[in-house]
């Protein structure tokens, strides 16, 4: 995901460079706009990435994909809970 966000930010910076060449802006103004566009897209993409990862935490789903949800009392050897027996035995 980090590589994708970086690539999108670089693309935004290159678009700012293309606009600068087309509009004939000065060098300093071009560098400033490239830096602002890169940082804006990088931070916005990073924020969206963190927001997508935080959604399951806000919904109360804390299980990891591929992990079996148990009662927390599974044995290390068998993987079965100690509460599998019937009450009264």
Provide the helix percentage: 55-70%
Task: Determine the mean pLDDT.
Answer: 80
Structural class: mainly alpha
| Biggest sheet statistics | none
Task: Find the count of extended strands (DSSP E, 2+ residues).
Answer: 0
Which ranges are low-confidence, i.e. pLDDT below 50, for 5 or more consecutive residues? Answer: none
Portion in beta strands: under 5%
SSE run? HH
User: Distance between the terminal alpha carbons, to the nearest Å?
Assistant: 52 Å
Number of helices: 2
Shape descriptor: elongated
- The Cα radius of gyration reads 25 Å
Task: Give an overview of the whole structure.
The protein is an all-alpha fold. The protein has helices spanning 2-23, 27-59. Helix 1 runs antiparallel to helix 2. The radius of gyration is 25 Å and the shape is elongated. The N and C termini lie far apart (52 Å). The model has no long low-confidence stretch (mean pLDDT 80).
Question: How are the SSEs ordered, and which strands pair?
Answer:
Elements: H1 2-23, H2 27-59
Structure, briefly:
The chain has helices at residues 2-23, 27-59.
What keyword list fits this structure?
mainly alpha, 62% helix, 89 residues
